[in-house]
Specification:
Helix content: 25-40%
Largest sheet: 6 strands, mixed
Strand order of the largest sheet: 3-2-1-4-5-6
Distance between the termini: 38 Å
Shape: globular
């Protein structure tokens, strides 16, 4: 199996704390919004969101270990595929999907599944590894990374969903991509995505 549990601590935890504080206020309208963390790991993002005052949080993972850890922290956690979510149509206010979509062998179908469960004005935050960077040994050669794609491919899939493409990188560079349900914002090695009401918000 290529399912693995995430460890707490280190680089990713710091990034999660930074981007959640930066973007959750842009992507939510109420502290009671249903926020679903795809590939939730041990619940670092949900803990941060709870610290920021959000009360309706749910994790999704394939890892029994991560599910148990998140539930021990008081979070509702579903063990299911991100491409076949155990959630009702139009029930989610925000999907938070950080470093998870690259694990889907068919990300377009996964994005359609996200669209199914999101409310009509629901929002999606996506962060994925950028291809061809110095961390290729982590990304392209990771045995369960199936979709390490560049901005044009992500933009193309967004277009297939009939979602306008906008966006911008976390480091303030000029090469930009994202969608009206996404707004992308990467660090030097990652591409991230978010949006609010069709308007991109970038750093």
């Amino acid at each position: 199996s290529t399912v693995y549990s995430e460890n707490e601590g280190g680089f990713h935890d710091d990034v999660i704390r930074h981007v959640s504080q930066q973007f959750l206020p842009l992507l939510t309208t109420s502290p009671n919004d249903l926020i679903v963390d795809i590939g939730c790991g041990p619940g670092v993002f949900m803990e941060r969101a709870r610290d920021l005052g959000y009360t309706n949080l749910m994790g999704v993972t394939l890892s029994r270990t991560d599910q148990a850890v998140c539930e021990s922290k008081g979070f509702v956690t579903k063990r299911c595929s991100m491409s076949d979510l155990d959630l009702a149509d139009g029930s989610v206010d925000l999907i938070w999907c950080r470093h998870a979509l690259e694990h889907s062998p068919y990300p377009l179908f996964t994005l359609y599944e996200f669209d199914r469960v999101l409310k009509p004005q629901g929002r999606l935050y996506v962060e994925v590894p950028a291809p061809d960077n110095e961390r290729a040994f982590i990304h392209e050669y990771n045995p369960n990374h199936y979709s390490i794609m560049g901005e044009r491919m992500w933009a193309g899939m967004s277009k297939q969903q009939h979602v306008p493409v906008i966006g911008g990188p976390l480091d303030g560079q000029t090469r930009k991509w994202s969608t009206a349900r996404f707004l992308t914002v990467p660090d030097a090695n990652d591409m991230v995505t978010v949006v609010r009401d069709g308007e991109a918000h970038t750093l």
